[in-house]
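During the reporting period the student researcher (J.K.) took over the structure-prediction task from the postdoctoral fellow and processed the backlog of single-chain submissions. One of the processed entries is reproduced below for the supervisory committee.
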Amino acid sequence: MKTILNIIWLVLSGFWLFLGYLVAGVILCITIIGIPFGIAAFRIGGYALWPFGRTTVERRDAGAPSCVGNVLWLVLAGWWLALAHIVTGIAQCITIIGIPLGIANFKLIPVSLMPLGREIVRTDQPFAGR
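J.K. obtained the following structure tokens:
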């Protein structure tokens, strides 16, 4: 079932969201200081491309630098990417078939706002990152 949902997701919104994360990552990687943020954008972009069957877990070894980085991320790119998830999620929830996709978009909002200190794992092993 998750493969079917991933294919529908890819066609309807995943590719465009991936492109948004790709553009954000490239812009952030232009400066040396923004490279960690660009890498986070690419990582979350891969998750936005194929989200079903995967989830995010909080990394216990992430400390104060992740918190500061998340604040900078929120200002630089997170707000716009979260807005894209909100708009796409609302548009997908209009139809009954799109409701699971819209809910997946809403689940991606916290990750798009604060990606540092999180790890993407398969859903059958959510505690592997701990």
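The committee noted the following: The longest strand covers residues 54-58.
J.K. will present the remaining backlog at the next meeting.
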